[in-house]
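User: For my dataset I need records formatted as: sequence, then structure tokens, nothing else. Please produce one.
Assistant:
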Amino acid sequence: MGAASSVPENSIHEFTVKDSKGKDVDLSMYKGKVVLIVNVASKCGFTNSNYPQMTQLYESYRAKGLEILAFPCNQFLNQEPESSEKVEEFACSRFNAEYPIFQKVRVNGPKAAPLYKFLKAKKGGFCGSRIKWNFTKFLVDKEGHVIRRYGPSTSPLSIEKDIQKALNAGM
């Protein structure tokens, strides 16, 4: 259980997801960008450290090609009970998040979002591919390939060098 399964997709650019209001977003729009994908929750112990650091990274590197995609998830002790729109309002008003907040997703189990099935298949975590908690992070290169996976306790600012390296790749 928790083992990575094979997926037919080769890149995040092959996926369409829903924004916080339910509108389709084709992830091919992020071609040429370095992307940090994070499953977020507003009532988690990591919330008050991760959101501000994600905002800081976004402010520092957005103009250089970084995008952060936040996916609310309520699979871990019901720490994200609010609607996707309320999560977006929370992140924007409390943490000045300017990066997109998407529709709430499942990251584990048979009903996991296809994007998360892909991410986990490409970069399994410690003891299997299952996502263990909120604020698991996936760093994706400009071609949409998963470079690294970081656990919930890894602070966004601690991966700044990896982000810089990915942004400078191919220059």
